[in-house]
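User: Some background: our group keeps a shared notebook of sequences we're curious about, and every so often someone picks one and asks for a predicted structure to add to the entry. Today it's my turn. The entry only has the sequence so far, pasted here. Could you supply the structure so I can complete it?
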Amino acid sequence: MIPKRPINRDVPAPEEKEAHTEEKPEPKAEKPPREPKSPTPKLLAALIVLALVLIVVAIVGSSSGGDREASTSEVTTSAPAASSEDGGGGGGESPSPQVAEALAFPAFATSNTTRIGGPGPISNAAGVALAVFPSTTATQQPAAVTVVDISEPSEAIAAAALMAPPLRVPLIFSQEEALPAVSAESLSALNPPGSRVTGGTSVFAVGKAYSAEMPVDGTIEKVIGARPTLFGRAAAIAGLREKLAGPPKHIVVATSSPSDLGFAAPAAAWAARSGDPVLFTEQRLLPPETAQVLRRHPKVPVYVLGPKSVVSKNVMRQIGKISKQVNRVGGKDAAANAIALARYHQGSFGWNVNDPGHGFVLTRSDSPASAAAAAALSASGTWGPLLLTEDPARLPAPLRSYFLDVKPGYTTDPTRAFYNHVWVVGDQSEIDVVQQAEVNELAELAKIGGGE
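Assistant: Of course. Here's the predicted structure to add to the notebook entry:
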């Protein structure tokens, strides 16, 4: 059922409303459990008002230059009150317990981190889309939205390329031939009008994603592919991106193995940042659909993401017979692999994040759907790479070392320093508040030397 009012209904409208510019079988991973029912529209309205305030504070402050494990620490921080100046209906009162719980207080935000902590990737994708596109005015709306079924996280990783400029198309999830309430409400709030850049399309529905009775007035385009496989869908997304935004500058090839998708997850953030298509391969054999895309662009550099344990040397040789430049970026595990891509730089490819003053996105390595959901955060605000953690309570040692390497510092004037900011995506069963506090400490600006 489509809700009667969108999430941002309670946000006051501007004095002058701006008008829209409208121009008109691969083996599947085990299906994730259905998420809990979303909060009521009224609750979500309060949530988005509070979220917008904290998100703005987090972004402005940083713009210079799964089973739950029991925690031994007790955190007593209370949720901040919403004032009448927020633009919401808070009236200066503290948020209700339901809103506080929905925002994952006390872990919603710290001085250097902001959490999007829904009960699963479906809610997180909706929250990310609204964080990047608050949609309180026409200028804040995306031109289009991509819908991918939650059971196809690889397709969602590939679809992240549509978020890159000039398209800037965020992603939400459908589930079991339906649009969950939280996805429907976010889509209604985003209200994508379509544009010349998107070919007039308001919704791109990938593969088996739900596409009926959408709460939008614009055109819905199905992205199916020549063959109904992951490889065919990824090729179709690459073709769509090329049709709308021009040929790629680089191509990323990642593993299709459901058990190894943590190695492919960082490609979503880079695709959202760059627009580079993400194609998939088997461990020892390059699929014909992927090879066909590579043959269209033999001079475009190809970057294989992951170690030889997930993408073999044999596949590298097969790619090398088609493409003139083939490079591997990889680490021994998913967390190290993400760091390798964050550090990597060759020509115009790679984040090259080896110094302070950046944004980061942190998710769990065993939740590739959350990585895809978070991709829009890597292409907005404090643009930055995706990093992966493997345990609810603590950071992997290589990730802690990486954060220390890029920790910001100052000698005399902290207001002239560079700052780091980290988006934490997932609830406390995925990334505990203790780990978030550790990340906050590692991102904190530190005084260097003894200067006044």
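Suggested note for the entry: Residues 81 and 93 are 6 Å apart (CA to CA). Residues 7-14+34-447 form one domain.
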